[in-house]
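re: ur question from earlier - yeah i can do the single chain one, its not a big deal. heres the input i used so u can compare w yours
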Amino acid sequence: GSSWNNCDFETNLCKVFPEFNLQSSWIRRNGRSGMGPPYSDHNGNESAYFLSVSSEMQFSSAALRTSVFLPTDEEHLCQIRYHYWVSQMSRTLMVGLQKLSEDTVTNIWQVSGELRNQWNVNTITINSTEKFEVIFSGMVETQRQGESVAIDDITFSEGC
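and the output i got, formated as tokens:
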């Protein structure tokens, strides 16, 4: 709905990800970039932008961290919906939760290499009694052409 904060990466400005320009491992690109799949965003648009993890290095990990969200309550759970692409077994996408009182990131969702090259969609619900951040982590274990991790259209509900 219109009440969701949407991050479609068509412009660089995405208030939910304040450090985005510092996150050099997530690359904002489109299907025409010459960097391999995916060759379009989740709507099939070749010129529309999404984020993907560079596979130029042997092992690379990219973390995309949100701004701090307030605690959730029963009426306003934080729902995050996102489109994702994970090709080949050496690719992983994880979504983690970091509460401000903790140093560690708790893994709340993960997917590893799916051989079919297509965009999928998922929604996660977060219930937290304290302030928290959400981290989208893409991991590339081996350097091979034609493989990638990508995310697009991340939307956050009012409870976030």
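The longest strand covers residues 78-86. not sure if urs matches, ping me
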